[in-house]
């Protein structure tokens, strides 16, 4: 490595996030220099298909000029203003109006933050606030799912079911965060158990937890409609149908974490729409701005909003907010993003190319490493297995997922290994021809790893 090179500076000074820092110290990082459409190029000039849209977010690819122009126009008009102390600005108001118009029914109010973690952190706070103000102050516990991912603040990392994001960070904090099983039917379904029976078993586990803890102690349940960071895990048939009534019966708020699923990823505008969920709160981020600006929104029901008004009266103010929550440049970019989604019928496009995506990846079931392929819309997970006939996983520590990821990189394909699961969430603009090329490169990566 050349002294004073970008890679040398990276190794010397840059702390990479969510990274095996030992591997980084040994091998360095792939530094991405530019992008166009669904492709990116690294600093060595190597081209990749970005089959993760960055971090499940660059829905319009890496060269959408309209978003750059929207940001520039807003920077020239009003580069910053806040929404504190009865002040505000047009882009955030217009975005709140737009988002609540397209949201699942009943979510008529929007609160803005900078990222998905902050939106979910706010949802946890609002769940407590709501129950306190409405006279149920003992409702404190929050239920998440093993392998669920809701962010990296103290509270959201506690709620997430990802042990490596808690170990040595002194998390989870306190005893307010409970977890139920991961609904990965392929891995956890019992021999002979149908998907529907598996869902019923998951629901029975939730009911038993509520009975054990007491419904009057539980504030909210968080779920991603399709689990992303857990391994791109689609819910088994009948899953949400079985658990939603249990939550309703127990007076537990349902928070839909649509940070990945929102804005067409699952083939409908919202994952909630795909799975027939009516949430009390919905968090979204990432594809909200096609990732061109950091922004998230928490959409809340009238009942929760009424509690904010009540609490504000009681405490003199609604005491929550961030300097950059609802930043005007980010909101302007979000409005332009949503306009593009509508003009180009992005949901229709996802529905049109989804069969090529799911069938193309599904064809890789013939590969000796591939145990299962599942997905919906333009999100998919591939399960790698040591012996797929016997459904035998690789031993812990075998790091086969990372090997496949590395070989895919060599073949010009950026995918994400989550243990022995390979996740795919390409930009929503991907074409059927590019999907074909993505699958060819994936097969080349699998062959090289085999
Ligand atoms: N929720 C889900 C479902 C996510 O996938 C993520 C990030 O990947 C987050 C929350 C956290 O979002 P952020 O990294 O923007 O804070």
TrEMBL record:
Pfam families: Aminotran_3. InterPro entries: Aminotrans_3, Aminotrans_3_PPA_site, PyrdxlP-dep_Trfase, PyrdxlP-dep_Trfase_major, PyrdxlP-dep_Trfase_small. The keyword Transferase applies. The keyword Transferase applies. Keywords: Aminotransferase, Pyridoxal phosphate, Transferase. SUPFAM superfamilies: PLP-dependent transferases (SSF53383). It comes from the Bacteria. GO terms for molecular function: pyridoxal phosphate binding; transaminase activity. Its cofactor is pyridoxal 5'-phosphate. Gene3D superfamilies: Aspartate Aminotransferase, domain 1, Type I PLP-dependent aspartate aminotransferase-like (Major domain). NCBIfam families: PRK06105.1, PRK07480.1. Belongs to the class-III pyridoxal-phosphate-dependent aminotransferase family. This is Aminotransferase class III-fold pyridoxal phosphate-dependent enzyme.
């Amino acid at each position: 490595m050349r002294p004073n090179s970008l890679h040398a500076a990276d190794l010397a000074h840059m702390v990479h996030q969510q990274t095996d820092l030992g591997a980084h110290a040994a091998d360095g990082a792939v530094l991405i220099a530019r992008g166009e459409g669904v492709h990116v190029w690294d600093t060595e000039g190597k081209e990749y298909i970005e089959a993760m849209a960055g971090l499940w977010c660059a829905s319009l690819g890496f060269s959408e000029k309209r978003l750059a122009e929207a940001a520039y126009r807003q920077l020239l008009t009003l580069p910053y203003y806040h929404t504190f102390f009865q002040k505000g600005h047009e882009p955030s108001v217009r975005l709140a109006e737009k988002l609540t118009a397209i949201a699942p029914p009943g979510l008529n109010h929007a609160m803005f933050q900078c990222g998905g973690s902050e939106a979910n952190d706010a949802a946890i706070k609002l769940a407590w606030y709501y129950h306190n103000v409405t006279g149920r102050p003992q409702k404190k516990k929050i239920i998440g799912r093993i392998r669920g991912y809701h962010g990296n603040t103290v509270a959201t990392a506690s709620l997430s079911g990802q042990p490596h994001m808690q170990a040595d960070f002194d998390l989870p904090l306190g005893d307010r965060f409970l977890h139920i099983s991961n609904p990965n039917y392929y891995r956890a379904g019992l021999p002979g158990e149908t998907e529907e029976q598996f869902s019923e078993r998951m629901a029975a586990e939730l009911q038993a937890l509520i009975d054990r803890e007491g419904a009057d102690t539980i504030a909210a349940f968080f779920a991603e409609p399709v689990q992303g960071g857990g391994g791109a895990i689609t819910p088994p048939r009948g899953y949400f149908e079985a658990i939603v009534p249990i939550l309703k019966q127990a007076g537990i708020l349902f928070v839909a974490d649509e940070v990945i699923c929102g804005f067409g990823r699952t083939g409908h505008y919202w994952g909630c729409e795909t799975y027939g969920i009516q949430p009390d709160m919905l968090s979204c981020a990432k594809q909200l701005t096609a990732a061109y600006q950091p922004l998230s929104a928490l959409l809340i029901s009238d009942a929760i909003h009424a509690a904010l008004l009540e609490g504000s009266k009681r405490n003199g103010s609604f005491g929550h907010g961030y300097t950059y929550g609802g930043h005007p440049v980010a909101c302007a970019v979000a409005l332009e993003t949503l306009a593009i989604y509508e003009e180009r019928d992005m949901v229709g496009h996802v529905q049109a190319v989804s069969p090529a995506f799911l069938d193309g990846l599904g064809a890789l079931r013939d590969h000796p490493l591939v145990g299962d392929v599942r997905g919906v819309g333009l999100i998919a997970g591939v399960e790698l297995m040591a012996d797929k006939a016997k459904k035998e996983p690789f031993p812990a520590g075998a790091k086969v997922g990372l090997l496949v990821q590395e070989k895919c990189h060599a073949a010009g394909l950026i995918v994400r290994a989550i243990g022995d699961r390979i996740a795919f969430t390409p930009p929503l603009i991907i074409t059927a021809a590019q999907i074909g090329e993505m699958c060819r490169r994936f097969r080349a990566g699998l062959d090289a790893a085999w």
